[in-house]
Write a structure and sequence with these properties.
5-stranded antiparallel β-sheet; alpha+beta; 180 residues
Length: 180
């Protein structure tokens, strides 16, 4: 059981804080409910205490797991991704994985979308999933490792940025005459 002010993670929403624990009467039965404030988007969730585990509410990953996931993202940018599927199938597959309470699964979705986006334009839905995955992964890792979400986001975007186009040395660098 969580306590007030505990940090928790709700799948597909991210890091939140237990603001309070209320007792509500629903259908004539009394039940305890966590009131969870999600940090990234100011959403408040009500999660029944007895169902918290089954809906995926969990503690933040430990420091070692967070560091391992971040290292994996930094060092596996060349790993193969599923490319034979159309965007619609990929979108459904990724959407299902985004609901996982396992941060490693969400990080894999992020890595695949970053790799795909390096080689081709992502669909609108895929771009939204990439932003959501980035928010979930960077939000939790930054909280655990004591850094900012922006630092992690910037690092990953820099690592996965498309390679610059090769410069054509045969053409002049500018429209004016060159100086020697």
């Amino acid at each position: 059981m969580y306590k007030v002010d505990d940090l928790v993670v709700y799948p597909a929403q991210g890091v939140g804080k237990i603001n309070r624990i209320d007792t509500k009467t629903i259908g004539g039965a009394s039940c305890d409910i966590y009131i969870v404030g999600i940090q990234s988007n100011n959403i408040t969730l009500m999660v029944p205490v007895k169902n918290a585990g089954s809906v995926g509410l969990r503690q933040l990953v430990d420091k070692q797991t967070a560091a391992d996931i971040l290292d994996s993202l930094k060092n596996n940018q060349q790993a193969a991704v599923t490319v034979g599927q159309n965007w619609n199938r990929r979108f459904r597959k990724y959407s299902d994985k985004m609901k996982s309470p396992d941060l490693g699964v969400v990080a894999d979705v992020l890595r695949e979308l970053l790799v795909l986006g390096r080689d081709k334009e992502l669909s609108y839905g895929e771009r939204r999933l990439q932003e959501q995955a980035m928010s979930l992964v960077a939000g939790e890792i930054s909280e655990v490792l004591g850094t900012t979400t922006e630092d992690i986001r910037d690092t990953l975007l820099r690592i996965y940025a498309p390679a610059p186009a090769p410069a054509d040395e045969a053409r002049p660098k500018s429209g004016r005459g060159s100086r020697s």
